[in-house]
């Protein structure tokens, strides 16, 4: 019988010999025969296979390549077919795959870093920038290989997406002319990257109007990637978009606290690793024998049969547990550990496929429902919530307190109030109107009995009255002249999102007296129904702050606008709950005072 060999197609990467993948390199090291694609594979890569027979395919026809491949394979050799970049783009691999399929010869493919990504790296550009383009078209001008009519450059230009054009730098003039004719502005930024990642890499930047001439001046005729699109505008010059980019990119975790993630089987360990790396602060606990499947930096191991003990020992050390295993196992181990609804950590159970994240314990106060939602956001599964008030979409006041940073003054009333809420009894509230509107408006069961602004909130249910202490939250805002209210709103939104607060939780806005007539700031206050209080330079400079601003000192003689005014606005014993978030033209800080005596 034939000695059975192996055929592997390997993406060599864009050029630099260390941009091959670890797996690709391992294949080279093992190879007996390497057929590589001439000028775009750095021959230094081949030094990794000192024993291999080498064939340069640059001048070979498909038949020759196939003949060598099949002959060596049948002789039991390990054959590597080395392609530039990634084999899947303009790699001419499909005809080779087809021939191998016909011959019934098995093969595998190891991907590589395409030159399109090496070019993006050289340009330091994100090809998919929010607001500018969320699609990338990889294409080419027609050459010996024609391009199907629907994919003519003129057609593709209409999308306005980022274009990455291979194999086409030889005819830049007509390429740019076609794009402009199809409606892309001559001002559209464009770049050519010659031999990205090679030692003789060169970058030419311009616009559709002048890039062709610049590329010709540079003498570049081949081996270049052309990138066209607004994304090439450097982000610094587009601070507004930059800012929005960050707002939309913000990953919103609902649960905050230390999480332990436990798994028992190998599949579960993989799922648990995925969950742990998607949460803000998580540690993994896995059986010793599956340690290799979990990332070392966040992993702890327990020995065979040691799960129960490890779980019990860690019970007091974490705010929450995510258990990737059958609910029954968890329930059995929980007995004896649970003590108090207000103190027990949250427990979420997740199946090993990640289809369901079940909030099992401490759903409200402990944040288990939020954690179940976070876990399901990571796994793409469903959060299973069984606490009555959530199921009925009714607010639970323990959760309300946690969300709004309020303190519960008489926790002993919680249970009675909660069951009145669930049983649809009428509930009367005394609280700030804005907060009532944001949280309870439109729910018939709840009425605002009296507006209160003294920081006390009362929940009158038939069987008990719950008392909460609301914090007094102040946003300190600094801004450049003539900044729009929507810019201010965007930066404020980021701060609030981070604090997991609503605009309705804010009691006051504060700034410096020099901003007293700043239209954007006044508009922002008015749009949100908030008072804006102003403080003089002298008042502001008397407040010690963590992040004084050299620019404000130079321009206004003020040490700090946002942090100092937030603290002054919140009054005595105020603390900063968010230090200054500084964007190009707006700074925002938040301070809080715990109110009632
Ligand atoms: N499979 C390869 C592309 C092969 S087609 C990949 O994934 O990159 C060859 C074309 O790719 C060249 O004409 C050029 O447009 C582009 N290319 C390949 N290597 C490049 C490099 N290092 N820098 C810029 N462009 C490159």
SSE topology:
Blueprint: E1 6-11, H1 22-30, E2 33-36, E3 53-56, H2 62-74, E4 78-83, H3 94-103, E5 108-110, H4 115-123, E6 136-140, H5 153-157, E7 162-166, H6 172-181, E8 189-194, E9 202-207, H7 211-217, E10 224-228, H8 239-249, E11 259-263, H9 266-278, E12 282-287, E13 299-302, H10 307-314, E14 320-324, H11 327-334, E15 346-350, E16 356-361, H12 368-379, E17 382-384, H13 388-391, H14 397-403, E18 407-408, H15 414-422, E19 427-431, H16 433-440, E20 446-451, E21 456-460, E22 465-469, E23 471-479, H17 485-499, E24 506-512, H18 519-527, E25 532-535, H19 537-541, H20 550-556, H21 562-570, E26 575-582, E27 586-594
Parallel strand pairs: 1-4, 1-5, 2-3, 2-4, 6-7, 11-12, 11-14, 12-13, 14-15, 16-17, 19-20, 23-24, 24-25
Antiparallel strand pairs: 7-10, 8-9, 8-10, 15-16, 18-22, 19-21, 21-22, 23-27, 26-27
Helix pairs in contact: 8-17, 17-18
Bound molecules: S-adenosyl-L-homocysteine.
Residues 14-15, 40, 83-86, 89-91, 114-115, 118-119, 166-167, 193, 195-198, 223-225 line the site of S-adenosyl-L-homocysteine.
Give a description of the structure:
The protein has 597 residues and is an alpha/beta fold. It folds into 5 domains: 6-113, Tetrapyrrole methylase, N-terminal domain (Cobalt-precorrin-4 Transmethylase, domain 1, 3-Layer(aba) Sandwich), CATH 3.40.1010.10; 116-233, 2-Layer Sandwich (Methyltransferase, Cobalt-precorrin-4 Transmethylase, Domain 2); 259-386, 3-Layer(aba) Sandwich (Rossmann fold); 397-469, no CATH class; 472-593, Nucleotidyltransferase, domain 5 (2-Layer Sandwich). Helix content is 31%, strand content 24%. The strands form 5 sheets. A 7-stranded mixed sheet has the order 13-12-11-14-15-16-17, with helices on both faces. Strands 3-2-4-1-5 form a 5-stranded parallel sheet, sandwiched between helices. It has a 5-stranded mixed sheet with strand order 6-7-10-8-9, sandwiched between helices. Helix 17 links the parallel strand 23 and strand 24. Residues 235-251 have low confidence and may be disordered. Bound molecules: S-adenosyl-L-homocysteine.
